[in-house]
Amino acid sequence: VHVQWYRSQEYLEYRLDQPGTYHVKVFARTLEDIRSGGTDSASLLVEPPKILSVQVDQSGSLYTGTTVRWTCQAEGSGPLEYAWYVYRDGERVHVQWYRSQEYLEYRLDQPGTYHVKVFARTLEDIRSGGKNSASLLVEPPSPPQVISVEADQGGPVCTGTTVRWTCTAEGSGPLEYAWYLYRDGVRVDTAWYRSGNTFSYTLSEPGSYHVRAFARTPADIRSVGTDSASLLVEPPPPPQVISVEADRSGTVLAGTTVRWTCQAEGSGPLEYAWYLYRDGERVHVQWYRSGNTFSYKLSEPGSYHVLAFARIMPGDIRSGGENSVSLVVEGNELIKYTQYNLTLDQALARQMSLSTPPQTDKYRNQPAYVHSQVLSGVARQGTVAYDGVRIRTS
Q1: pLDDT, tens digit, for every residue of 211-240?
Q2: Which residues, in sequence order, are CB contacts of 54 under 8 Å at separation 6+?
Q3: Its pTM surpasses 0.85
Protein backbone atom coordinates (compact mmCIF):
# COMPACT_ATOMS: atom_id res chain seq x y z
CA VAL A 1 0.00 0.00 0.00
CA HIS A 2 3.02 2.32 0.22
CA VAL A 3 6.66 2.57 -0.95
CA GLN A 4 9.34 4.81 0.49
CA TRP A 5 12.44 4.74 -1.75
CA TYR A 6 15.98 4.71 -0.43
CA ARG A 7 16.98 7.62 1.76
CA SER A 8 19.34 8.21 4.65
CA GLN A 9 16.76 8.02 7.50
CA GLU A 10 16.69 4.69 9.20
CA TYR A 11 12.96 5.02 10.09
CA LEU A 12 9.55 5.29 8.42
CA GLU A 13 6.45 7.06 9.71
CA TYR A 14 3.09 6.11 8.23
CA ARG A 15 -0.54 6.91 9.02
CA LEU A 16 -2.65 3.80 9.28
CA ASP A 17 -5.89 5.10 7.82
CA GLN A 18 -7.64 1.82 7.21
CA PRO A 19 -8.28 -1.15 9.45
CA GLY A 20 -6.23 -4.25 8.72
CA THR A 21 -2.95 -6.17 9.49
CA TYR A 22 0.08 -4.11 8.61
CA HIS A 23 3.79 -4.98 8.34
CA VAL A 24 6.77 -3.45 6.52
CA LYS A 25 9.66 -4.91 4.55
CA VAL A 26 12.86 -2.90 4.81
CA PHE A 27 15.87 -2.86 2.50
CA ALA A 28 19.36 -1.30 2.92
CA ARG A 29 22.09 -0.35 0.41
CA THR A 30 25.54 1.16 0.31
CA LEU A 31 26.39 4.30 -1.51
CA GLU A 32 27.74 2.05 -4.26
CA ASP A 33 24.20 0.62 -4.54
CA ILE A 34 25.03 -2.74 -3.05
CA ARG A 35 21.68 -3.86 -1.65
CA SER A 36 20.57 -6.19 1.12
CA GLY A 37 17.72 -8.58 0.94
CA GLY A 38 14.37 -7.46 2.40
CA THR A 39 13.49 -8.13 6.05
CA ASP A 40 9.86 -8.16 7.30
CA SER A 41 8.67 -6.52 10.52
CA ALA A 42 6.24 -8.07 12.91
CA SER A 43 2.57 -7.62 11.97
CA LEU A 44 0.45 -4.83 13.46
CA LEU A 45 -3.35 -5.17 13.70
CA VAL A 46 -5.28 -1.93 13.13
CA GLU A 47 -8.91 -2.07 14.23
CA PRO A 48 -11.70 0.61 14.02
CA PRO A 49 -13.30 1.98 17.21
CA LYS A 50 -15.80 -0.40 18.78
CA ILE A 51 -19.17 0.89 19.98
CA LEU A 52 -20.15 -0.95 23.12
CA SER A 53 -23.58 0.55 23.85
CA VAL A 54 -26.03 3.34 23.08
CA GLN A 55 -28.21 4.26 26.03
CA VAL A 56 -31.02 6.81 26.51
CA ASP A 57 -32.06 8.59 29.70
CA GLN A 58 -35.79 7.99 29.03
CA SER A 59 -37.75 4.80 28.51
CA GLY A 60 -41.22 3.68 27.58
CA SER A 61 -43.77 5.99 26.01
CA LEU A 62 -42.93 9.67 26.02
CA TYR A 63 -44.92 12.81 25.32
CA THR A 64 -44.14 15.19 22.50
CA GLY A 65 -41.99 18.07 23.66
CA THR A 66 -39.75 15.78 25.76
CA THR A 67 -35.98 16.29 25.46
CA VAL A 68 -33.98 13.05 25.64
CA ARG A 69 -30.23 12.32 25.84
CA TRP A 70 -28.53 9.37 24.18
CA THR A 71 -25.03 8.37 25.39
CA CYS A 72 -22.53 6.26 23.47
CA GLN A 73 -19.97 3.97 25.11
CA ALA A 74 -17.11 3.10 22.71
CA GLU A 75 -13.51 1.83 22.65
CA GLY A 76 -10.74 2.89 20.35
CA SER A 77 -7.13 3.99 20.12
CA GLY A 78 -6.91 7.50 21.42
CA PRO A 79 -9.61 10.12 21.76
CA LEU A 80 -12.80 9.44 19.80
CA GLU A 81 -15.37 11.57 18.04
CA TYR A 82 -19.04 10.74 17.54
CA ALA A 83 -21.67 11.31 14.87
CA TRP A 84 -25.41 10.78 15.21
CA TYR A 85 -28.40 10.09 12.96
CA VAL A 86 -31.90 10.58 14.43
CA TYR A 87 -34.75 8.58 12.87
CA ARG A 88 -38.52 8.98 13.26
CA ASP A 89 -40.65 6.14 11.91
CA GLY A 90 -37.64 4.91 9.89
CA GLU A 91 -36.93 8.27 8.26
CA ARG A 92 -33.81 10.23 9.11
CA VAL A 93 -34.84 13.61 10.52
CA HIS A 94 -31.61 14.94 12.03
CA VAL A 95 -27.80 14.60 11.63
CA GLN A 96 -25.14 15.59 14.15
CA TRP A 97 -21.67 15.34 12.57
CA TYR A 98 -18.55 14.16 14.38
CA ARG A 99 -17.61 15.96 17.54
CA SER A 100 -15.95 15.07 20.82
CA GLN A 101 -19.11 14.77 22.95
CA GLU A 102 -20.22 11.18 23.44
CA TYR A 103 -23.88 12.20 23.85
CA LEU A 104 -26.72 13.76 21.85
CA GLU A 105 -29.63 15.75 23.24
CA TYR A 106 -32.73 16.10 21.07
CA ARG A 107 -36.28 17.43 21.55
CA LEU A 108 -38.97 15.07 20.32
CA ASP A 109 -41.48 17.52 18.90
CA GLN A 110 -43.51 15.10 16.79
CA PRO A 111 -45.25 11.85 17.65
CA GLY A 112 -43.65 8.67 16.32
CA THR A 113 -41.08 5.94 16.96
CA TYR A 114 -37.56 7.33 17.40
CA HIS A 115 -34.09 5.78 17.45
CA VAL A 116 -30.55 6.97 16.77
CA LYS A 117 -27.60 5.47 14.92
CA VAL A 118 -24.22 6.49 16.32
CA PHE A 119 -20.76 6.30 14.75
CA ALA A 120 -17.30 6.70 16.32
CA ARG A 121 -13.98 7.58 14.78
CA THR A 122 -10.41 8.07 15.87
CA LEU A 123 -8.51 11.27 15.31
CA GLU A 124 -6.94 9.47 12.34
CA ASP A 125 -10.49 9.19 10.92
CA ILE A 126 -10.69 5.43 11.36
CA ARG A 127 -14.42 4.96 11.67
CA SER A 128 -16.61 2.41 13.29
CA GLY A 129 -19.73 1.05 11.82
CA GLY A 130 -23.05 2.52 12.96
CA LYS A 131 -24.89 1.15 15.97
CA ASN A 132 -28.61 1.64 16.55
CA SER A 133 -30.19 2.56 19.85
CA ALA A 134 -33.36 1.05 21.20
CA SER A 135 -36.58 2.65 19.94
CA LEU A 136 -38.63 5.24 21.84
CA LEU A 137 -42.36 5.70 21.33
CA VAL A 138 -43.41 9.35 21.43
CA GLU A 139 -47.12 10.19 21.73
CA PRO A 140 -49.09 13.41 22.08
CA PRO A 141 -49.81 14.12 25.74
CA SER A 142 -53.33 13.50 26.91
CA PRO A 143 -55.38 16.71 26.94
CA PRO A 144 -55.85 18.48 30.27
CA GLN A 145 -59.00 17.76 32.22
CA VAL A 146 -61.19 20.61 33.48
CA ILE A 147 -62.47 19.55 36.87
CA SER A 148 -64.68 22.51 37.81
CA VAL A 149 -65.69 26.05 36.79
CA GLU A 150 -67.16 28.07 39.65
CA ALA A 151 -68.23 31.70 40.22
CA ASP A 152 -67.66 33.70 43.39
CA GLN A 153 -71.34 34.76 43.34
CA GLY A 154 -74.42 32.60 43.62
CA GLY A 155 -78.11 33.18 42.98
CA PRO A 156 -79.52 36.29 41.29
CA VAL A 157 -77.21 39.33 41.29
CA CYS A 158 -77.84 42.94 40.28
CA THR A 159 -76.59 44.54 37.09
CA GLY A 160 -73.23 46.21 37.58
CA THR A 161 -71.93 43.32 39.72
CA THR A 162 -68.39 42.08 38.94
CA VAL A 163 -68.19 38.28 39.04
CA ARG A 164 -65.02 36.15 39.05
CA TRP A 165 -65.01 32.58 37.77
CA THR A 166 -62.24 30.10 38.69
CA CYS A 167 -61.26 27.05 36.60
CA THR A 168 -59.67 24.03 38.27
CA ALA A 169 -57.90 21.70 35.80
CA GLU A 170 -55.26 18.96 35.65
CA GLY A 171 -52.69 18.38 32.92
CA SER A 172 -49.04 17.86 32.08
CA GLY A 173 -46.99 20.99 32.74
CA PRO A 174 -48.17 24.56 33.36
CA LEU A 175 -51.62 25.20 31.94
CA GLU A 176 -53.16 28.17 30.20
CA TYR A 177 -56.87 29.03 30.20
CA ALA A 178 -59.34 30.54 27.74
CA TRP A 179 -62.89 31.73 28.44
CA TYR A 180 -66.14 32.28 26.53
CA LEU A 181 -68.82 34.41 28.23
CA TYR A 182 -72.46 33.91 27.25
CA ARG A 183 -75.57 36.01 27.96
CA ASP A 184 -78.87 34.33 27.16
CA GLY A 185 -77.00 31.79 25.02
CA VAL A 186 -75.14 34.37 22.91
CA ARG A 187 -71.37 34.72 23.30
CA VAL A 188 -70.62 38.30 24.34
CA ASP A 189 -66.94 38.16 25.33
CA THR A 190 -63.80 36.04 24.77
CA ALA A 191 -60.59 35.90 26.80
CA TRP A 192 -57.84 33.98 24.95
CA TYR A 193 -55.36 31.60 26.54
CA ARG A 194 -53.27 33.01 29.38
CA SER A 195 -51.67 31.64 32.52
CA GLY A 196 -54.21 32.79 35.13
CA ASN A 197 -57.04 30.37 35.95
CA THR A 198 -59.57 33.13 36.80
CA PHE A 199 -61.80 35.36 34.68
CA SER A 200 -63.58 38.53 35.93
CA TYR A 201 -66.37 40.43 34.22
CA THR A 202 -68.79 43.23 35.12
CA LEU A 203 -72.33 42.14 34.26
CA SER A 204 -73.86 45.39 33.08
CA GLU A 205 -76.93 43.96 31.32
CA PRO A 206 -79.75 41.79 32.68
CA GLY A 207 -79.87 38.17 31.53
CA SER A 208 -78.71 34.62 32.22
CA TYR A 209 -74.89 34.38 32.16
CA HIS A 210 -72.46 31.47 32.09
CA VAL A 211 -68.87 30.89 31.00
CA ARG A 212 -67.18 28.07 29.10
CA ALA A 213 -63.59 27.41 30.19
CA PHE A 214 -60.78 25.68 28.26
CA ALA A 215 -57.29 24.59 29.33
CA ARG A 216 -54.20 23.79 27.26
CA THR A 217 -50.67 22.49 27.82
CA PRO A 218 -47.47 24.29 26.71
CA ALA A 219 -47.54 22.04 23.60
CA ASP A 220 -50.99 23.48 22.74
CA ILE A 221 -52.84 20.26 23.64
CA ARG A 222 -56.30 21.54 24.51
CA SER A 223 -59.13 20.36 26.68
CA VAL A 224 -62.73 20.41 25.67
CA GLY A 225 -64.80 23.31 26.96
CA THR A 226 -66.59 23.02 30.30
CA ASP A 227 -69.55 25.22 31.17
CA SER A 228 -70.15 26.89 34.51
CA ALA A 229 -73.52 27.05 36.20
CA SER A 230 -75.80 29.85 34.98
CA LEU A 231 -76.02 33.11 36.90
CA LEU A 232 -79.17 35.24 36.71
CA VAL A 233 -78.54 38.99 36.51
CA GLU A 234 -81.46 41.33 37.26
CA PRO A 235 -81.82 45.12 37.38
CA PRO A 236 -81.45 46.42 40.94
CA PRO A 237 -84.58 47.72 42.71
CA PRO A 238 -85.07 51.48 42.30
CA PRO A 239 -83.64 53.66 45.06
CA GLN A 240 -85.96 54.96 47.78
CA VAL A 241 -86.06 58.67 48.67
CA ILE A 242 -86.43 58.85 52.45
CA SER A 243 -86.62 62.61 53.03
CA VAL A 244 -86.15 66.01 51.37
CA GLU A 245 -85.44 68.81 53.85
CA ALA A 246 -84.46 72.47 53.57
CA ASP A 247 -82.09 74.35 55.85
CA ARG A 248 -84.83 77.00 56.29
CA SER A 249 -88.45 76.71 57.32
CA GLY A 250 -91.61 78.80 57.44
CA THR A 251 -91.38 82.25 55.87
CA VAL A 252 -88.15 83.72 54.44
CA LEU A 253 -87.34 86.99 52.72
CA ALA A 254 -86.75 87.34 49.00
CA GLY A 255 -83.06 86.96 48.14
CA THR A 256 -82.50 84.17 50.66
CA THR A 257 -80.40 81.19 49.46
CA VAL A 258 -81.90 77.90 50.60
CA ARG A 259 -80.25 74.48 50.51
CA TRP A 260 -82.29 71.28 50.31
CA THR A 261 -80.81 67.85 51.21
CA CYS A 262 -82.13 64.53 49.89
CA GLN A 263 -81.69 61.34 51.92
CA ALA A 264 -82.05 58.19 49.80
CA GLU A 265 -81.14 54.49 49.85
CA GLY A 266 -80.14 52.26 46.94
CA SER A 267 -77.70 49.61 45.76
CA GLY A 268 -74.57 51.38 44.60
CA PRO A 269 -73.65 55.05 44.15
CA LEU A 270 -76.61 57.42 43.70
CA GLU A 271 -77.15 60.54 41.62
CA TYR A 272 -79.79 63.20 42.31
CA ALA A 273 -82.02 65.47 40.21
CA TRP A 274 -84.14 68.42 41.38
CA TYR A 275 -87.25 70.32 40.19
CA LEU A 276 -87.90 73.74 41.78
CA TYR A 277 -91.48 75.04 41.88
CA ARG A 278 -92.84 78.55 42.66
CA ASP A 279 -96.58 78.78 43.23
CA GLY A 280 -97.01 75.35 41.59
CA GLU A 281 -95.06 76.23 38.43
CA ARG A 282 -91.68 74.63 37.70
CA VAL A 283 -89.08 77.38 37.42
CA HIS A 284 -85.77 75.48 37.52
CA VAL A 285 -84.34 71.99 36.81
CA GLN A 286 -81.08 70.53 38.15
CA TRP A 287 -80.28 67.29 36.28
CA TYR A 288 -78.72 64.18 37.84
CA ARG A 289 -75.36 64.59 39.52
CA SER A 290 -73.54 62.94 42.44
CA GLY A 291 -74.21 65.49 45.21
CA ASN A 292 -77.33 65.02 47.34
CA THR A 293 -77.86 68.77 48.00
CA PHE A 294 -79.40 71.57 45.93
CA SER A 295 -79.01 75.31 46.62
CA TYR A 296 -81.03 78.12 45.08
CA LYS A 297 -81.48 81.85 45.68
CA LEU A 298 -85.18 82.65 46.05
CA SER A 299 -85.36 86.10 44.50
CA GLU A 300 -89.12 86.34 43.92
CA PRO A 301 -91.96 86.21 46.46
CA GLY A 302 -94.11 83.11 46.37
CA SER A 303 -94.55 79.58 47.72
CA TYR A 304 -91.54 77.36 46.87
CA HIS A 305 -90.87 73.62 47.10
CA VAL A 306 -88.60 71.11 45.37
CA LEU A 307 -89.24 67.65 43.91
CA ALA A 308 -86.16 65.39 44.36
CA PHE A 309 -85.27 62.21 42.44
CA ALA A 310 -82.49 59.61 42.89
CA ARG A 311 -81.04 57.10 40.43
CA ILE A 312 -78.51 54.25 40.40
CA MET A 313 -75.67 54.36 37.87
CA PRO A 314 -74.80 52.47 35.78
CA GLY A 315 -78.20 51.28 34.68
CA ASP A 316 -80.11 54.55 35.17
CA ILE A 317 -82.53 52.95 37.67
CA ARG A 318 -84.63 55.85 38.98
CA SER A 319 -86.75 56.51 42.05
CA GLY A 320 -90.05 58.31 42.09
CA GLY A 321 -90.04 62.01 42.98
CA GLU A 322 -90.38 63.22 46.58
CA ASN A 323 -91.66 66.73 47.44
CA SER A 324 -90.22 68.93 50.13
CA VAL A 325 -92.22 71.09 52.52
CA SER A 326 -93.16 74.47 51.02
CA LEU A 327 -91.39 77.72 51.93
CA VAL A 328 -93.12 81.12 51.73
CA VAL A 329 -90.98 83.95 50.38
CA GLU A 330 -92.13 87.52 51.12
CA GLY A 331 -91.01 90.84 49.61
CA ASN A 332 -88.52 92.96 51.54
CA GLU A 333 -89.34 96.32 53.34
CA LEU A 334 -86.53 98.81 52.68
CA ILE A 335 -85.56 100.81 55.80
CA LYS A 336 -82.77 103.34 55.50
CA TYR A 337 -81.12 104.71 58.62
CA THR A 338 -79.19 108.01 58.71
CA GLN A 339 -77.04 108.97 61.69
CA TYR A 340 -76.90 112.57 62.97
CA ASN A 341 -74.92 114.08 65.87
CA LEU A 342 -77.89 116.33 66.85
CA THR A 343 -80.73 115.82 69.24
CA LEU A 344 -84.29 116.23 67.98
CA ASP A 345 -84.64 119.56 69.87
CA GLN A 346 -81.42 120.87 68.34
CA ALA A 347 -82.55 119.87 64.85
CA LEU A 348 -85.93 121.56 65.39
CA ALA A 349 -84.34 124.77 66.65
CA ARG A 350 -82.03 124.85 63.62
CA GLN A 351 -84.95 124.45 61.24
CA MET A 352 -87.03 127.12 62.93
CA SER A 353 -84.15 129.62 62.87
CA LEU A 354 -83.96 129.69 59.07
CA SER A 355 -84.70 133.08 57.43
CA THR A 356 -87.54 131.45 55.57
CA PRO A 357 -89.12 129.16 58.12
CA PRO A 358 -90.06 125.73 56.83
CA GLN A 359 -93.66 124.72 56.30
CA THR A 360 -94.53 122.86 59.49
CA ASP A 361 -97.54 122.21 61.58
CA LYS A 362 -96.91 125.58 63.17
CA TYR A 363 -98.65 127.18 60.18
CA ARG A 364 -101.42 124.65 59.77
CA ASN A 365 -104.12 127.21 60.56
CA GLN A 366 -102.73 129.91 58.29
CA PRO A 367 -103.41 130.39 54.57
CA ALA A 368 -101.24 128.29 52.23
CA TYR A 369 -99.09 129.78 49.46
CA VAL A 370 -97.91 128.38 46.14
CA HIS A 371 -94.62 129.78 44.91
CA SER A 372 -94.74 131.43 41.52
CA GLN A 373 -91.73 129.43 40.32
CA VAL A 374 -93.75 126.26 40.59
CA LEU A 375 -96.52 127.65 38.44
CA SER A 376 -94.13 129.07 35.82
CA GLY A 377 -93.19 125.56 34.79
CA VAL A 378 -96.90 124.73 34.27
CA ALA A 379 -98.37 127.67 32.34
CA ARG A 380 -97.50 131.20 31.32
CA GLN A 381 -100.90 132.54 32.22
CA GLY A 382 -104.13 131.25 33.58
CA THR A 383 -106.98 131.66 36.04
CA VAL A 384 -107.21 130.16 39.51
CA ALA A 385 -110.76 128.95 39.93
CA TYR A 386 -110.63 128.47 43.68
CA ASP A 387 -111.10 130.91 46.47
CA GLY A 388 -108.42 131.57 48.98
CA VAL A 389 -105.44 130.56 46.84
CA ARG A 390 -102.49 132.86 47.33
CA ILE A 391 -99.49 133.16 45.02
CA ARG A 392 -96.13 133.92 46.53
CA THR A 393 -93.57 135.62 44.34
CA SER A 394 -90.60 135.64 46.69
Answers
A1: 999 999 887 889 999 999 999 998 888 999
A2: 70, 71, 72, 73, 116, 118, 131, 132, 133, 134
A3: no
